[in-house]
Design a protein that fits this description.
Layout (H helix, E strand, L loop, with lengths): L11 E6 L4 H12 L5 E5 L9 H15 L3 E5 L14 H14 L4 E5 L4 H13 L3 E8 L6 H13 L4 E6 L4 H17 L4 E5 L1 H10 L7 E3 L13 H15 L2
Parallel strand pairs: 1-2, 1-8, 2-3, 3-4, 4-5, 5-6, 6-7
The structure holds 1,3,4-trihydroxy-5-OXO-cyclohexanecarboxylic acid.
The site of 1,3,4-trihydroxy-5-OXO-cyclohexanecarboxylic acid (DQA) has 16 residues, from strand 2, strand 5 and strand 6.
Length: about 250
């Protein structure tokens, strides 16, 4: 059975695939499977053939088939939120997300909150009809907005009808890291849907290791390649999660 985000006491470990073609993606997949993550995120914005819907759908199905019981997240990260430059407009990217919901058994599709609300809600509708879940995400690679602003992003995700709310921001100080953790705890207590959060970069790495204590349900870790600054190797996360479980019971 594939794991569901928000279930269980420990955060799930997700590792990204960032290959630019099928051969590289599948080689990465074979490599990361040995490290036994809970979730694989396919960052399709790195994929050169992203404009070819049939090719993307076929590769998503192959990843799912090879990954077996592992949960899959399909993500097109936009350039404005730290992703790659892609030859698709926002609405074309949404159509591709919808095609993934309709034509694959990928469990989760990531959708940025910065999309038009009507596009976001249309995708949620298609996702629901196909039993796919939507992760509503917000990223800021430059700074950490105020705690109130982060809380608004979490709340907005729930209001938009997403199944999971995710916030990733860049700290400049340790106070920023605390802001992210504090907003995460608040959201965990307030929201009905699970939350994922991280403070990026070296300063924020502590949130990838201990964010679960404050309510984050997934930690993104390096299997083969990193998809954002500050991600730690899966092996290190396993060690830390083991210690947290032993000492805190979670
Ligand atoms: O949203 C996220 C989180 C992330 O940016 C990180 O900081 O680990 C990595 C991305 O691949 C993923 O889609």
């Amino acid at each position: 059975m594939s794991k569901i985000i928000g279930e269980g006491t420990q955060p799930l470990i997700c590792t990204p695939l960032v290959g630019r073609n099928q051969e590289i993606v599948l080689a990465e997949l074979a490599n990361v499977l040995e490290k036994k993550p809970d979730i694989i995120e396919w960052r399709a914005d790195f994929f050169e053939a992203i404009a070819n819907t049939d090719e993307v759908v076929a590769l998503a199905n192959t990843i799912k088939e090879i990954a077996g019981d592992l949960t899959i997240i399909f993500t097109i990260r936009s350039i404005r939120e730290g992703g790659q430059t892609i030859p698709l407009s926002d609405s074309e990217a949404m159509e591709l997300n919808a095609a993934i919901c309709t034509n694959t058994s990928v469990e989760y599709v990531d959708c940025e909150l910065s999309n038009l609300p009507e596009h976001f809600q249309q995708l949620c509708k298609v996702a629901r009809e196909n039993s796919t879940k939507i992760i509503a995400s917000f990223h800021n690679f430059n700074c950490t907005p105020s705690k109130e602003s982060l809380e608004e992003r979490f709340t907005q995700a729930e209001e938009y009808g997403a199944d999971v709310a995710k916030v990733a921001v860049m700290p400049k100080t340790l106070e920023d890291v605390l802001t992210l953790l504090s907003a995460t705890l608040e959201a965990k207590n307030k929201l009905k849907i699970p939350v994922i959060s991280m403070s990026m970069g070296e300063l924020g790495a502590v949130t990838r290791l201990f964010g679960g204590v404050f309510g984050s349900t997934v930690s993104f870790a390096v299997g083969q390649s990193s998809s954002a600054p500050g991600q730690v190797p899966i092996e290190d996360l396993n060690t830390v999660f083991h210690i947290v479980k032993k000492s805190m019971g979670m």
